[in-house]
Amino acid sequence: MTLLKHRPSFKLWVGVLAIGVVVGIVGTGNVLLNGHSAVYNVTREIPWGILIATYVFLVVSSTGLCLVSSLGHVFGIEKFDFIGKRAIILAILTLLCGFGAIGMELTHPIRMGLYTIISPNFSSPIWWMGTLYGLYLVLLCAELFFLMKGMHKGAFAMGMIGFIAAITAHSNLGAVFGLLEARPYWHGSFLPIYFIVSALVSGGAIVSMIVYFNHKTTGEPMPQKYEDFMGTLGKLQALFLLILVFFVVWKIIPGLYGHPPEKYEATVAVLSGPLAFNFWFFEVLLGLAIPVILLLNKKTRTPYGVMMAGLSSTVGIFFMRYDLVIAGQLVSMREGTADLVGGLLQYSPSVTEIAIVIGAISTCLLLYTIAERLLPLESDH
Amino acid sequence: MKNKRFAIVLDTRRCIDCKACTVACKAENDVPLGSENYRNWVGEEKLRGQYPNLGQSFTPCQCQHCGNPPCAHVCPTKATEVNQDGIVHVVADKCIGCKYCMTACPYNARYYNEEIEAVDKCTFCTHRVYAGREPACVETCPTKVRVFGDLNDPSSEVSKLLTKYPSRVLKESQGTKPYLIYII
Amino acid sequence: MARLIDKKLSRRRFLGTSSCALAVATVGSQTTVLKALASSGKVTTSKGAGTKDVFTACGMCVNKCGVIARVRDGRIHKLDPNPEFIKSRGMLCARGNAGVKVIYDADRLKYPLIRVGKRGEGKWRRASWDEALDLVAKNMNEIAEKYTRAGVMFASTEGTFQEHFFLQMAECFGSPNTVRHPTLCLSSNIQGFGATYGTNPTPDVLNADYIIMAGANRSEALITPDSIDQLKGDGGRRKLIYLDPRFTKTAAKADEWYPIKPGTDLAFILAMINVIISEGRYAKEFVEEMTVGFDKLVPHVKPYTPEWAAKETEIPAEDIRRIAREFAAAAPKAIYYQGRRSSFFTNDTQLRRAMAILNAIIGNWDTEGGMVPNSKIKLVKHDYLAPWYDDVPERIDKGSAAFLSEKDGSWINLRNRVLEAKPYPVKGMMIYKQNVVMSVPNRAKTLKMMDQMDFICTIDIVMSDTAWYSDVVLPEATYLERQDPLESLSGILPVVAFRQPCVEPLFESKPNLWIMQNLAKRLGSEVAETFDFTMDEHIHHQVSKNPQILKDLKSKGVHYMKVLPTYGLTKGKRLKTKTGKIEIYSANYAKKGLDPLPTYTKHEDVPANKFRLLVGRSAIFTHGTTANNAYLHDIMPENTLWLNTLSAKKMGLRDGQRVKVKSRVGEGTLKLEVTEKIRPDCVYMAHGFGVISKGQSLIFDRGACDAALIEDKVEPISGNAAMHQTFVEVSPA
Ligand SMILES: Nc1nc2c(c(=O)[nH]1)N[C@H]1C(S)=C(S)[C@@H](COP(=O)(O)OP(=O)(O)OC[C@H]3O[C@@H](n4cnc5c(=O)[nH]c(N)nc54)[C@H](O)[C@@H]3O)O[C@H]1N2
Ligand SMILES: Nc1nc2c(c(=O)[nH]1)N[C@H]1C(S)=C(S)[C@@H](COP(=O)(O)OP(=O)(O)OC[C@H]3O[C@@H](n4cnc5c(=O)[nH]c(N)nc54)[C@H](O)[C@@H]3O)O[C@H]1N2
Ligand code: SF4
Ligand code: SF4
Ligand code: SF4
Ligand code: SF4
Ligand code: SF4
Ligand SMILES: [Mo]
Q1: Which of A304, C67, C210, C367 minimizes the number of CB atoms within 10 Å of its CB?
Q2: Distance (Å) from the C-alpha of residue A115 to the closest C-alpha of chain B?
Q3: pTM for the model
Q4: Taking all residues of chain C, what is their mean pLDDT, rounded to a whole number?
């Protein structure tokens, strides 16, 4: 480990993350000094921007990590056992950083703490989202505690409840969008289910990277056990991805068929409109096609290939979140809105918004890197 | 107010898109400057036809004070409240700025007010109405497109208008039960 | 007016807080407001001051609608319409509502300023009123000495209720050269209708069943009460025929819209007269009894058939014929609406004459739903004895038009003569509430004229382009801060309006009377004596024959005598024409060598690859000086060039791209708006952008200025500007 600390690639990694964190801090400072409207590009028509997308991305990752790790210590798939602590730690960190991202979008995170308790609205999906994710966070921490202490029963129990909480919280996140009748692109029961499936992909992808890079940093060749794990994970990932493809296709077809009002325009915006590059390049090529090809092909389903597939789909998934959040808002809700381009509203993230996104992701990775160094995360199996 | 159901009935045939309502509302309600900050607006509907056979209508609009307001359903802290008389409003101190209501409102009636640090929207000028006056936009309108009143009172001008003329509401299919009612 | 809620409230509060003769007790200190405005440009509320409602009149445009200012803690919070103000039907338009941003505007003039840099460079130094007025008086006297008193010209526009003090100053100083807005606005209208009826009547829009509106965009160019009355929802009984090369908001409300070829309205009217006469649809008895010269009209209009007019106007002959028949059938509740601004083409007076004649032959004179002569409530005039000066020449623009109003002059003709220094030089300019750089066609020429001045002083409330080009700029208190004299507004239902200070003047701004009095003191005792009165005395003198007027104003913000129109007051009486009748044939014109009956003249057609530049109002702006108002700016931050979709396609121009517009006298760059709403041979831009003055921070460098492009053509009978005879090239910028 001491050796590792001095390796240039490690220094570079920490350096880059540190810069990312600084960028995030500068962005945050900018918001605090100048106010949201001055530095964000969100508008009255598109009130949710890249920060919400990042939040969704991060909490989906968290859920995915929790679900995948539970395969081990909850569902007893032994191969998955050893990633437990890492996955849970990262689940906690992604969740916290997700909260950070949405916290920067909210204007009164502190008020939120107060009024969600003294003035709760049980019909609000966001209230449930906050509550369930709060609970989920507590469970994750407890689970980690038990794992660290080697208390398997406790870990199992927490893992079990955590798994349920993750599924509930996460499908509820889908409902945050899905219950909005005003936004036909989001509205319906599709999103809650879709969110769970995509969480599995996210989780698997991130796990593949954790496992791969952890071994990479030791400088030693990967033990067979891990190689096997990567192979299994790769197959599983391929399955998840194919299910996701299925979902993506079934998101598009009803969006086009019969030109459902507003849903159609939003779908077209994704397929051939302002979000088309994001969709075809990031979502389809990086997010789905490349990983599926890498994972289905036995030759490329090496640890390296599985990791690459994970990396690729993670990048793709980020754009899936972004496109989903933005596309749902691109269609103006009233006639005569000025400054439409091609009949659609416009949004592109501001520098500050991007800085905060960079900050959130960098913070998450940096904290994980630190945790990796400071905590005994190797499995005791 | 008890036993009242406030509404605005609009005769858009008379609207000349003069924007008096928009400026009156901004001034009355200290809506911050900025082209995105407004509680009401006048929709210039798409030009119908081709030169020289053209037609255009204007639709003044604002919060619909929905009888079934999605904004209130989704608000996590009950910052969006509904009064007994149907007026939907935001309690600024409770608003956490999640903007969920903005994505939930099918009319784009809400905006984030940086000065009060909360989401803001039309209040039907409660402060004027409860003092026995008319909303600012109603009072100032040159051609009196807008009529404000209590639908529970059959002798009110709004009730009379609605018995006399057929009317419609915007985005009825959303099930929001709007109380901005347009005469056709 | 059914809206009584406000009235009761406001009356009580108003009486409760105001005790003394006129001025409402001023509440609260303005220091907090002042400091805040000075340091940040924003206004905060001053604490501890009372709350009151003040009756006053809007000062944002010619209409002067009744206002109740809601003053909270010494700050005007909101301007509400006065429901009692029958002329405006209890409304305030966007601009009226935006008035609060006039008084609390970081860009407003705060102190007297003296130029330190080159003229137009925008370098100023704050001066005391004493220093500034000393300098003005010194320059006026020097110019008078060097070039006679006519060497100082006085430019002004109505609106403040205090313009007559400025005109008094001109007269008492001894200059004949006053030049007012009418020849940029409605002088050909006044001339054409005056020559026919002896007066310019008001169309009874509220009660008319059939209205033909041409060249008057009442849904955007707001005139009270017409703009409101034209939309009276009466179940479709009313028919509105609208002629305009643009699809305006009025067009959107009209029953029929015809994009008439600009400059051919006269052909349309002559053809209507032709149909009405040839089909015997005119009001025979009325014509016989009330008019002179009908017999000459009959052969005169013979050649003007609808088929002929269709070629000129591009309106189908059958439509012209049908409209003429419908119009005559609806008589006398039918009006050919004459509009207000008539500075269109070089035959404008004859066009307005034709409108008057068309109305006359269907007998809609002085009847319900017809053309009703104005009534006016009398106020006692303030008399003064102007000093006599020897050797002052006549108006410099004398004789430049067939009929010139002695006080108004003819702006463009006057400018030409000043530039030529013929017959004498004019080297000083006093400007009051007029934005000449923006309002007079051919901006370059106005600037040239100003360049050759030895001295220019502008009294304004903001750093207009005109102020920017001046040597001394004096800040008048805004209409919300002043006590203004009473003003009698004529109409079918005449009213008297007034203004009271809602809050004390901010900064060092002063009302015009104060400025004139203090300038007069410096110009010698003879001039000063004519200003020896207080505003209070002046107002009491105005109502000395009818004190009820003032009582009404104090209790309800307006005075009127009747709420229902009276018609037929001129019946059996002589009209104010030479013959005492409606002069279809004008012997007066014949004597001057002018066409005694309106004869059609063709205007130059739009050359290939060029467009006719049109001028027209936007409902949210007043002329050239409200685009910088923060509330209105939010709605329209810059102007665009309207270009028809087909024309844009042909030229390969895209919506939203920047284009250069070039005329013979100037050019400008602005955003293109590709639209169906305009004839393919015309372009249009809103007035008031492309300013020179950096003192208009919101709009500086935004859009283009139409005044820079419009050529300075003049209508020869009235001396009115002809603003629609400019052709422009459009190219990508
Ligand atoms: N909002 C607002 N209201 C105002 C004012 C303001 O500045 N703002 N100003 C006030 C004043 S001072 C005046 S004088 C009045 C002016 O009131 P209007 O006389 O109604 O003035 P414009 O808007 O200039 O209307 C001219 C219309 O004529 C059209 N037009 C141009 N050429 C021709 C032509 O050859 N034939 C026909 N038939 N139409 C043509 C133009 O497209 C334009 O729409 O408005 C008053 N009201
Ligand atoms: N291109 C073009 N030119 C036009 C027209 C057009 O449509 N297009 N319309 C023409 C017509 S119809 C008219 S009537 C004229 C009008 O032209 P102007 O008479 O020049 O009127 P405004 O442009 O309103 O300018 C009024 C000036 O008075 C100032 N002012 C406002 N309130 C006060 C006050 O209380 N006190 C003082 N001292 N100053 C004040 C304003 O800041 C502004 O500088 O323009 C004419 N010129
Ligand atoms: S004030 Fe009245 S006429 Fe003007 S835009 Fe608003 S609703 Fe229409
Ligand atoms: S219009 Fe929008 S803001 Fe108003 S009550 Fe309905 S949903 Fe809520
Ligand atoms: S932004 Fe404010 S009012 Fe809207 S849902 Fe969130 S807390 Fe409620
Ligand atoms: S009712 Fe009041 S708050 Fe609502 S739009 Fe009208 S002026 Fe604004
Ligand atoms: S029409 Fe508008 S700007 Fe003109 S006086 Fe009336 S309220 Fe004021
Ligand atoms: Mo005018």
Answers
A1: A304
A2: 5
A3: 0.93
A4: 92
